[in-house]
Amino acid sequence: MNDQFDATVACHPFLVDFPNELDGITKPISFAIAETDHHYGSEKAAETEKILGARGQTFEVVVYKGVQHGWTIRANMADTEKKAGRDKAKEPGQI
Q: What domain of life (predicted)?
């Protein structure tokens, strides 16, 4: 569905059918991914970079270190690394 927009952002892309749906990406895209996420973590993030990079696609993949699935709504605000990850995720993509 990426082709229906000028650009897209996939925050917490747990519903992405990996790697099949990457084939449909034709426009700029940004992924925001928790380092630890059993749906779409750092390993799939690295594969996403490899697949989209090989196609010359305009993209960014940001892996937020030290955070896990749900980090933007359930962050431990007393943990400076988790709070920083949550705050950074609110910034707009740089693609």
A: Eukaryota
Alpha-carbon distances, residue 32 vs 17, 65 (angstroms) = 16, 11
Lay out the sheet containing 29-36: strands in order across.
8-11, 29-36, 59-68
Cβ distance 87 to 51 under 8 Å?
no
7-37 pLDDT, tens per residue? Answer: 998 888 888 899 999 999 999 999 999 999 9
| Structural domain count of the chain | 1
pLDDT tops 90 at residue 82: no
SS (H, E, C) the chain: CHHHCCCEEEECCCCCCCCHHHHHCCCCEEEEEEEECCCCCHHHHHHHHHHHHHCCCCEEEEEEEEEECCCCCCCCCCCHHHHHHHHHHCCCCCC
